[in-house]
Amino acid sequence: MLTPNIITFSLRNRAILAFASAISMAGFMWPFFYSGKENELPKTQLFFWFAIALSALLVLAEISSSSMDAKSIALLGVLAALIAALRPLGAGVAGIEPMWFVLILSARVFGASFGFILGLLSMFVSALITGGFGPWLGYQVFAAAWIGLAAGALPQKIGKWNLRGRSEIVLLVGASIVSALAFGVLMDLSIWPWALGMQTQLSFISGGALGENISRFIYFHFASAMAWDIPRAIFTSILVILTAPAVLTALRRTKVRAAFLTPIEFVTK
Question: Model pTM?
């Protein structure tokens, strides 16, 4: 029997989430549509801080509407703190980042809405711990939030076939690989217009043809992917294979025994 997700966004909050995600996506994709001057590139972090503010309002709305009870909030805080503590362990060296397997497995158990909030909160808490505040933080926050959202949206079953055991691990390994590669693409989008200057064959061309800029970005991305994205995908997949059976069992047991969103009744004798 599959237990329900502990957080389910209302229709209104889904609209807010979609709007905030659209704004942040514009912050990633602007190089392909920008036609301004090369020395007047937009301050894209403004996109993200506006979107993050909307997302924070979304979380507050979920709490105030009782979509998240005290136990859900406590679990969210514990997992966010764990992910934030794991992130610096690899120091980002060659894409070795042990945080992703916890985010993916947690989102798998608790659902897409929980995964989105967990990814967003974990990156923000990690920045508090490491002092990693900067124009890159907005990019990282939404990339992690989308990974949590996608992991939580993976199907629980296909037809009458429940995805459990080896089939579930295969699914999660595939999700880990896609997530690791997607994170690399998003992070490269965040730095590409500034990384190489304007004089190389891989540089961003302000006002250039869409096809030309896409081609340049693809070459730029694959030049860095071998050193960062592929090791991240391999490392995350190995952690998922080694830990998924135990971690998924523990998280599912927590989900059932904590009885999230079940009212607490006090009985007097």
Answer: 0.84
